[in-house]
Amino acid sequence: MEGDSTDGGGGGSSGGSADAQFVDNPREVDEFLSSTGAALLTWRDVRNLAHGSTNGRSNTTTTHIDDLLSKELLQMSIQDRNTIYEEIHGVQTLAPTETPALIQTALAQLATELMLVHPAHKVAYERSRQHRVTYINTAEFRLRFLRCELFDAKKAAIRMVHFLDLLLEVFGEYALQRPIQMTDFNRDEMVIFRSGLQQLLPYRDRSGRRLYASVGGFNVRTPLISRVKILLYTLYTASEDVETQKMGIASIVWPGSTKNTTFTDDTTGINLDKVIFMKRVYENLPVRTCSIHMCLPDTPFYQMMKSIMILTMSTYRKRMKFHVGETIELRYSLKGYGIPVELVPLTDTGNVKTSYLKQWMKVRRILEVRKMAEEQQRFQEQLHYQQQQESSFDDLFNDDTDTTSINTMTSTLSMPSPQQPLEAIIECPRSHDVVFRSGTSMACHPGNVRFRCLIELKHEDAYLISSTTQAELAEQLIHEITMNGGRFLKWDNHGYWTGLQDRVQIHTKVALSIRDYKYKTKAQRNRQTNQSCTFLFQDQDGNKRRKTNNNKHAKNLCNRQQTTSSHGSKVKSQRAVRATAVAIDTTPSSSISPSSQQQNLLLHQRLQHTHLSSGPNETTAEAERIETNTTLNASSIPQPQQQQQQQKRRTSWFGNKNS
Questions:
Q1: Is 393 domain-assigned?
Q2: Neighbours of 376 (CB within 10 A)
Q3: How far apart are CA 540 and CA 338, in angstroms?
Q4: What is the predicted pLDDT for the residue at 371?
């Protein structure tokens, strides 16, 4: 049995007793296996699996457990299976479109279903109704479970009463009076919390789901109650956001490095009754889990842990995805599901990143302190209002008080001032928000991705860009973002986001984004590209290389190019000889002097002799030189005769070409 930790607040005694209850019970384990669909397995089979046994019976057990995944999918229709696959990939969501009528009807049905639940199954709920002040009866709290079960009132009632039982068992009685806070953890639990094994990521994925990561190993040697308290608190705070309640969360389980992982060191803390307890926890969380991505190395220990996870989370078998391989393979696999892998708080060497976790814990303390102060102030105002109202009615029925004083007191009696809104402290931006912060950390935020796509779409319309100024374009972008429910946020140095309220400041930042896009596209257009073939020079460095088919192919290609160039030079030389001969033959003897006629005849003979005795390159050069001399001689012809000569030359040239 692993060491227990003492819980702080009201959960001290409950934490120790809960760990003391975890003793293996074969009958309960067999019932658990039957409920999860693993009826072919027995208590001894799973015990051998947990201890890393490698005999034939253990291999058969692993095969039966792996078959559970395919069995769950085969029992579904094609349409339901495709719908779940699309939600896992972030293409669509199963959440219905909410209307005020739908919300009111669902809340009424939920209240009815809570009354129909047997009192023995809702102990914590009945105890919460005995408190004068409680948050459980609020519509905000109950809507979390309705959205989690897609507005199925019966399922939402069962999940809600089971979640309250978990709060009472893990935290204590005070968790039924007020929401759980970070002050409910003791010092040892805060050390585990700050280690970063469970944390939320700073941004959402491409479909707007909040990302929850469990990294750095399964941490089976830490107290179970501490891990459950951290899990419940983390996901409860994530469910405070309405968009997270609608879209759900995507969980990433990434143990990391496995260099020192052995069965002896890591499986001693595995207890099957604890597995059954974790099954209760996963099935009654206050937020809907859309997908669970298990990024595991291909080792025997994590194969055993994969089987335990399949048995534990039977509700999420259809939504579990197992990725096995090296770190780079796991990252590429997660990218296919719309998850920004650069936000995963784990290095390549297996170290856990805790910078954002510490920042998030600081923001949570600020929010909780301000909420407690405002609730206390509201309670005092309500109490003062009740006392004032009671005193006014006492004075109203007092005979010594005249009508004038009664009217005066009645006019001075007023309702308390409305609650001042909490300062705009935004922990995680929504999917349609546009955030402004120095650096490139927000490049993966879905709101900024949509914003950049809008800018590119506007610049693709040439007429719109030419007829619209940059200020008008910025106003159009601001209007489209706000119409979709988006906000413009800026980063505060205290560790959270705040909304921009100044219209001029928003316009300036959007205009700067447009300018940066123009500079970027202009730089891409002006970038020089080299499309030359460089494999011809791969053997010119003086190093000896082994002859391969690639080198032979390159040499053949070079020879083919040289042959083609030689053939082209030969054709060019023949054309030059023909053109020179035509020019000499078509020149009238009356317009050229006898010395010029004799010179042209000698040039023609010399050209033919060069063509027969020399190479193609020399012939081409000689032909060009002779053609130049012939042109110079022909330029001495008078202008009218020269025009006639050119006309005859064209006629004879096209005639010879057609023939």
A1: no
A2: 10
A3: 47
A4: 83
Quote the number of domains for the chain: 3
Residue 489 and residue 576 in one domain: no
Rounded distance between C-alpha atoms, residue 306 and residue 602, angstroms: 95
User: Which structure tokens are listed for 387?
Assistant: 């006392």
In a domain, 403, yes or no: no
Write the CB contacts of 549 (distance below 8 Å, at least 6 apart in sequence). none
> Which residue in this structure is represented by tokens 């779940």?
84
Task: Give the model's pLDDT for residue 73.
Answer: 75
Sequence-separated (6 or more) residues with CB below 8 Å from residue 298:
324, 325
Select from 327, 353, 379 the last residue of a domain.
Answer: 353
pLDDT digits (tens, 9 = 90+) for 355-399: 999 999 999 998 888 888 877 777 777 777 767 766 655 554 454
641 falls within a domain: yes
CATH number, position 228: 3.40.525.10
Tell the residue number behind the tokens 């001029």, with chain if given: 504
Judged on CB neighbours under 10 Å (0-12, 13-18, 19+), 579 is: middle
448 shares its domain with 301: no
**Whether 348 and 457 share a structural domain:** no
Tokens 């920042």 map to which residue?
Answer: 359
Asked if residue 413 is part of any domain, the answer here is no
> How far apart, in whole angstroms, are the C-alpha atoms of residue 578 and residue 586?
12
Taking the C-alpha atoms of residue 34 and residue 30, their distance in angstroms, rounded to an integer, is: 6
Segment 154-174, tens digit of pLDDT: 999 999 999 999 999 999 999
* 642: its two tokens: 């020269």
Domain that holds residue 154: 9-353
How confident is the model over 249-269, as pLDDT tens digits?
A: 999 999 875 444 444 334 444
Burial of residue 287 (CB within 10 Å: 0-12, 13-18, 19+) is buried
Per-residue pLDDT at 467: 86
